Amino acid sequence: MLIKLSDLGSSLPLSTLTTGTPVTTFTTTIPVTTPPPAPSVERIPATLEQEYYKIYLEPNLINNTFRGQVEYQFRCLRSTPLIHLHMVDLMIHNSSISITFPTSGSPQYESWDYDKYNEFMIIRFDSNFVEGTVYHLNISYSGILSDSLTGLYISKYNDTKNQPKTLMTSQMEPTHARTAFPCIDEPGRKAIFQISIRHNSPYTVWSNTRAESEIDQGDGTIITTFKPTLKMSTFILALIMALEQDFGCRQAQAVPGYKNSSHIIQSRVCGRKDILEQLAYAEEVATESLRFFNEYYDMDYPLEKIDHFAVPDFGAGAMENYGLLIYREVGLFFDEKTVSASRKQYITTVVAHEVAHQWFGNLVSPEWWGELWLKEGFASYMETLASDRIEPDWKQDERFVVEKIFSFMEADSLPTSRPISINSTNPADIFQLFDSITYDKGATLIRMMSMFLGNTTFQEGIQNYLKNLSYSSAKEDDLWSYLSTAAKDTISVGIIMNGWTRQPGYPVVEIQRTYGTTKQLDITQTPFSLFSSETKDEKWWIPFKYFDTQTVNRADSQTLIWINETTKTISITTDDDKWILANPGYLGIYRTKYDQENFRLILEQLKQDHTRIPVITRGALIDDTFALIRTGKVNTTDAYKLLGYLKNEREFVPWTGAFSAMRYQEDLLSGTEILNSVQEHFLELILPLYNQIGWDPVDQSKDWLTALLQPSVLSASCRYGHKNCIDSARSRFLRWKMNPSLNQIPATLRSTVYCIAIRDGTTDDFNFLWDRLQSEAVASEVLNLLNGMACTRDNNLMVFFLNQHLKNNSAIREQDMAASLERIARSPQGNYQAWTYVRENWSKLFAKFGRSLVLGDIIDAVTNRFVTTIQRDEFKAFADSIPDKGTASRQFILSMDKINAAINWRNQNIDPLTEYIDPSGLATDKSQRLPSDVVPTRYSLWIKPYLNITNDNLRFSVFDGVVNISLNVRHETNRIVLHTKYIDIINVRLISSDNTQVTTHSFDEERDFFIIMLNKNLTLGSSPTLYIQYVGELRNDTYGFYLSSYVRSDKTRGYLVASQMEPIAARRALPCFDEPALKARYVIAVEHDKRYTAQSNMEATGPPIPVPNDNDWVTTTFAESVPMSSYLLGLVVSDFKCITNTTTGRWRNITTRACAQQEKVEELDYALTVASQNIEDFEIQYDLSYPLRKVDHIAVPDFDAGAMENWGIIIYRETRLFYNIKTSTSSNKQDVALVIVHELAHQWFGDLVSPAWWDDLWLNEGIIKKYKKFSLDKPSLVSYLRARKL
Ligand SMILES: [Zn+2]
């Protein structure tokens, strides 16, 4: 069937590949309670040969039941009085059991027994069936339409009016057909099926074949009978019954046969009617894949039609039912706006995969589940060939290495791994076969064969295999013999491949060079395993190739050397000072270990010019080396040295290997002291790539793999705390939150952005996504939202979120449970929460998922990051407490192995690694002051705050900003350092007369430094201009430009922007030199809603000017300021009202205004009087005229300090400025007067003459609180500031 759930890939597809498994010397054995192995499942005896089933079904979507009748035609091969059929959970109408043909002389029904273990219904008759005779058996029964996504089941959805509705769909693989009708439910026992279904007339039905007749029953129901199928297995039967008003298909595309062009195949894509246009891409992939495989297999798809149907609830990724392929909606729907690069690729490969199955699996089926890989491995390999045809630029081979080879090699190195082919299976095992070994190792083995046989021979072999075994079943020996024949028996494929399919695991190949006169390679193979103390003597036939600097460009055509012995020696000619590398293109399935000297030569090459080594080999080096450190075969520090060259690496395969290695290292080092230093080290390696790729959407048509890589790069950079990354993610999220109907976050980045925003966000942010989810119809966006919500660090929200998966009528589907748990468990805190949740809800989870693959995934998800003995003991206690582990039994053992290996790795590696990482080596100059090389003279600032807010719950908003900073160069330097905080830099340019340019920029989060590097030194005394475009946050924390609000008497809420820069918040408002001594002039322009008024330090140069092409916005520009410190910058954008005195001051040339929310403006009369009189007093007292033309006194609803003396725009907490003659006391009156006087005094002391530097204490956030206390306490404030600022 099915692409496993995990293969769906989140939008962070690459980081999900990483959950690896450590390998190390294993000394302590922790017994896991393992139930005795279940007996193999019995096969249905071959006494009767099934030929034909006539199936009649009557589903009832009101009470979720169905009635059925089956007429089973068989031929007796060996005389017997018994009929064995598979049957589960059906209520058989005993009186209906009878042999209906031949009508006379047939055996009579006596009774039936049930064999629960084998799921057999064994029907006994009064006499023997006669050899060679054909009989018809009739059985009527009824059953329940399940809600567990198996058999015939109910799928739920909300229609376009958001009304809950249901449809019936099906999933028969592997053993669910027996829940729909009694049958011989084995893949090798093929028959012809004819299905009839009685349904209400508003419903349409689909099945494997076209409808043959539709008979109106005159009671509002219709009986639709489908054409008989070709001879096929039960597991690919399919049936869908859905409301015609909600579900339908796009117009069929006619695909002519390749062999027989008059055989026209109608290819259709189907799903929810209202979004059928989103199926256009899937439609193209469907028809192209069909064309490709018709040609590649040299055999036409034999049916008249092939429907690809997207249903809302589907357990697997997709299912290849003959002629009616069923998908999850994410597998088919494609909306350019919301679908990321990885999902587009997923759609392509999943459709190609299912189409490939129409031959491998449907036409020729595995004889038994034990050789499931014969179809799944094949389809997983073939999907890449078809995708390569459809999207030639996607570098399928590089993807194959990452997504298939890297991914199964983890699981296959565990002691619990299994051979890809197994003989015996018990019922639960059948479900557990749908794993990475079957899919990815299977595909890799097939790729290996096509590589050592050559594509042409390989293709010829499988064409013959398909042609000769059509409509029947096959074992792997059949495949070997067809491939050997195609190779003209020059090679025995069976002998080579048996070791690969009948043994678990794969080898590690150690290459020891002999240097000097006798140049040779000693090549040793040993099984690669977690348990190096365990001796195994397994051997493989290894197709071995190597290359050096001379042969690197023709590595593929190097002689193939077969290694089937433990050690083999070959002579070489490579010079001693040149490296050799093995396994070009990852031809063979093995890990490679080199001797120390050769490894050193490789590191040297990577450092000098890594591009001399092919991309896949670079990736393999990283992946192999990090796997080998877990066995102790390679030193951990050597592996870290290998990563050093990544600063220059830009390619998909090596980086994916590296991200995987880094993620796993983080998990292993969880809770240790060196984790932070290791993360810093990783971030340093990633930053050059981050700076190159950045946040702008990558052109997928030009650089597909970089587009795929981008989310991983951003996700890792943010995870390692890169400030710019986090700020960028957050500002994108806030912008969307402000205007929910317009989500401008590129599809590829949504999952990352949502995750970062939720991780550090509020309940309100979480609720925002939750609200979006309620009405989100696009399947891939639903996944983005789920991924985002799973990143919360709030325990209550985690539990709420997980509970929603199990609730009826929830916006979250149960199918997403394992993936959500996995994501929650990625943080240490989430891991604990997820683990607790699974333990507390085990019986519920078992009831839901005990029969499906999901249960094992759940255990894997919560235990993946267990690395301590405490966690191991908890896990063991839990495992011991549940005797029946259902389909998860293997996973329990596997998880225990993983945990033990992680514990051992930590014991051995943390000390040497700590020494290597050496935190003291990372320490740099941590002066808190800006360098004095470059200083500002003038800021020209434009900002646009967004205040068109409709949602009262909104907590944050954003603003756009552009600043041009005129600089004065005091010392030659090639860097400019200024401050930023909570600012997302969009663009940085330097405008200079000598064409000096910005090369890179970076952030030092600890010091709020924004460091800009230039291509050459700035000339002494020159005056370049720095241009910076950015997005800032309007937070509600009363610092920087901040968002404030008040409630009017009619309960409506008014919003405003206010500001508070002192001491170090100007850096939140604009990139600036945020030190008090670095004064400059400011020209400020504010673009704002025309219903608002903007006020700043200086007077406006005129009335607001309308913004061209936008009737609602105007620009207010202010006069150039006097030179002032950044901490004095002031801005208020509000719908406040002011009262004015235009004749203030000694020369009556100053305007004083007092402003507040409109309803309270009359309480300002007293403040205006005091403010006007005191300006005059101060001018006289100091004999210094006030240098500005106006001073505003503005009362804002939430202001952290009591008042702030911004030059020309003094901001007060409301209560400090209001005086109501009726309600205020005389002490209030005195307070108002005092605070105004003191703030006015500051216009001279502090503003005119500023401190050279803040007391160092002030830089500490904790001391800011102390400062607030000062400002509330007037006498000490005044004395403190006087002492400081004079
Ligand atoms: Zn498949």
- Termini gap: 80 Å
Instruction: State the major sheet.
Output: 7 strands, mixed
Helix content: 25-40%
How many alpha or pi helices? 33
> What share of residues are in beta strands?
25-35%
Q: Report the strand count.
A: 49
Give the bound compounds: zinc ion
Average of per-residue pLDDT values = 87
Assign an overall shape.
globular
Stretches with pLDDT under 50, minimum 5 residues? 3-35, 919-926, 1255-1286
Strand numbers in spatial order across the main sheet: 4-7-2-1-10-13-12
Computed CA radius of gyration, to the nearest angstrom: 36 Å
Domain Peptidase M1 membrane alanine aminopeptidase: 281-500, 1166-1265
Main location: membrane
InterPro entries: Aminopeptidase_N-like_N, Aminopeptidase_N-like_N_sf, ERAP1-like_C_dom, M1_APN-typ, Peptidase_M1, Peptidase_M1_aminopeptidases, Peptidase_M1_dom, Peptidase_M4/M1_CTD_sf
Domain Aminopeptidase N-like N-terminal: 51-235, 935-1128
Give a description of the structure.
The chain is of the alpha+beta class and 1286 residues long. It contains 33 helices and 49 strands. The protein has a 7-stranded mixed β-sheet, with no helix packed on it. It has a 7-stranded mixed β-sheet with strand order 34-37-32-31-40-43-42. A hairpin with a 5-residue loop joins strand 38 and strand 39. Helix 4 runs parallel beside helix 13 (652-668), helix 13 packs parallel to helix 15 (704-719) and helix 20 crosses helix 22. The protein starts with 47 loop residues before the first strand and ends with a helix. Residues 1-2, 320, 353, 357, 376, 379 line the site of zinc ion. It is found in: Cell membrane; Membrane. Residues 51-235, 935-1128 form the Aminopeptidase N-like N-terminal domain. Belongs to the peptidase M1 family. One of its GO terms (cellular component) is extracellular space.
